[in-house]
Design brief:
By secondary structure, the chain is of the alpha/beta class. Helix content is 47%, strand content 15%. A hairpin with a 6-residue loop joins strand 2 and strand 3. The radius of gyration is 23 Å and the shape is globular. One of its GO terms (biological process) is RNA methylation. It holds the Pfam family Methyltr_RsmB-F.
Length: 438
């Protein structure tokens, strides 16, 4: 595509792959093909992909009325080119309108839809003539999603969740020690402390993925909330991570429990292979198994089980914006049935007096409180344990920074669950509960 910039070309094909359900945007934006671009083009491609996915509903609402037949079915390549052009015209300040329009037209031509190039040109020119308009964040989400958050959390919180989901999340990293942090600084990566954890840092400038510390596994990109889940789970002598891939929380468990027997399970063979690769620097200390977490092949073997269950991921919409376009309201109940099975299986795998940490990156009660209530209601030998006590213990041990326990205790619900809303401490949204087997 000689007449299309490398950044727009890359963004176009990533958006096509996301639309086809091939991979998540986060995975594609870290792919090797994107790393070959210059830093400027890589940053622009990332901004275009995430921006289009975040504002897709509002972009379509702006573009559709300008078509001769607003409800006409458009080829996916044409629709994505229109969204790319519209996002640049409506949401980006430093992109010349001519570049946004002309390259969108060229993308359509070179994608084999030359007949549609005139329409794309005309629609985008009309859009440009109308000037930039401020879009409300709630217009970028399905209406049913905004309504259910309003009902669950109240209007102000629902609007705040939507607003934060439209912003670029911070890049959280985990550093092993001060020498690694100094090494990153020497490599041009500027870090500041995280909000909660002593080992968490936030990247302010630089590309951590180009450093030897990142390539060698001595530091990794990981949201601080994700790190927090692994830390809350705590310590044990025999530990099971029953839904382990991609392995970030498994690594936290391994760091905190260097002498423990750790088993990491994953139901997908490709994901298990990727998990083994990621954990390989530990020299085989973690046993990786192919296993369905709903039917774990263990009976009272572990004193700690982490059940970080598959979920709808509505706490990560800023990082994974395409989720909002795939979800339907029935997904929450379907996910909950599997989550109940996983939690019940995890409780069977844990020893008496052992504990299970149940977590999701979902905001939805069906996947969180209601799962816990259903399983505990059917299991006489299990009970919730106080989250506040665990948080205060973590601060005494230096895992949490000074004052973090008090901040997190404000996020503990009356029932004893910890719920982090997206962006509350610069993290994604998470839910975690600690359950003791009596």
């Amino acid at each position: 595509m000689a007449q299309v910039s490398p950044a727009r070309k890359a963004a176009f094909f990533i958006l096509l792959a996301v639309d086809r359900g091939e991979r998540h945007s986060d995975d594609l934006l870290r792919a090797q093909s994107l790393s070959k671009l210059s830093a400027v083009d890589r940053n622009l491609a990332t901004a275009l992909v995430l921006g289009v996915l975040r504002w897709q509903i509002a972009l379509d609402a702006a573009v559709r009325p300008l078509l001769k037949k607003p409800n006409a079915r458009l080829d996916v390549e044409v629709l994505i080119a229109l969204r790319l052009g519209a996002f640049q015209l409506l949401q980006m300040d430093r992109i010349p309108a001519r570049a946004a329009i002309d390259e969108s037209v060229e993308l359509v031509k070179q994608a084999g839809h030359r007949f549609a190039s005139g329409m794309v040109n005309a629609v985008l020119r009309k859009l440009a003539a109308g000037g930039k308009k401020t879009a409300d964040a709630t217009s970028a989400y399905p209406q049913w999603m905004v309504e259910r958050w309003t009902q669950t959390f109240g209007e102000d919180t629902a609007c705040e969740v939507c607003r934060l989901g439209q912003a670029q999340p911070v890049i959280g990293v985990r550093v092993a020690d001060a020498p690694v942090e100094q090494e990153l600084a020497t490599a041009g990566v500027e870090l500041v402390p995280g909000s909660l954890l002593s080992r968490a840092r936030i990247v302010l400038a630089g590309d951590i993925t180009t450093t030897s510390a990142f390539r060698e596994g001595r530091t990794r990109v990981q949201d601080e909330g994700s790190q927090l889940i692994g830390e809350i789970a705590g310590t044990g002598t025999a530990i099971l991570d029953c839904c382990a891939a991609p392995g970030g929380k498994t690594l936290v468990l391994a760091e905190r429990n260097p002498e423990a027997r750790i088993v990491a399970c994953e139901v997908s063979e490709p994901r298990l292979h990727a998990l083994r690769e990621r954990l390989s620097p530990l020299g085989g200390r973690i046993e990786c198994r192919l296993a369905d977490a709903t039917h774990l092949p263990f009976e009272a073997e572990f004193d700690l089980v982490l059940a970080d269950v598959p979920c709808t991921g509505t706490g990560t919409l800023g990082r994974n914006p395409e989720i909002r376009h795939r979800l339907v309201e029935g997904d929450f109940a379907r996910q909950a049935e599997r989550q109940k099975e996983i939690l019940a299986s995890a409780l069977r795998a844990v020893l008496p007096a052992g504990r299970v940490a149940y977590s999701t990156c979902s905001l939805e009660p069906e996947e969180n409180e209601q799962v816990i209530a259903a399983v505990l209601g059917a299991t006489a030998s299990a009970r919730l344990t106080p989250m506040q006590a665990r948080l205060e213990e973590m601060e005494r041990e230096g895992i949490l920074i000074s004052g973090a326990a008090a901040k997190l205790n404000q996020c503990v619900t009356p029932a004893g669950y910890l719920r982090l809303r997206p962006g509350q401490f610069g993290t994604d949204g998470f839910f975690v509960a600690l359950i003791e087997k009596m």
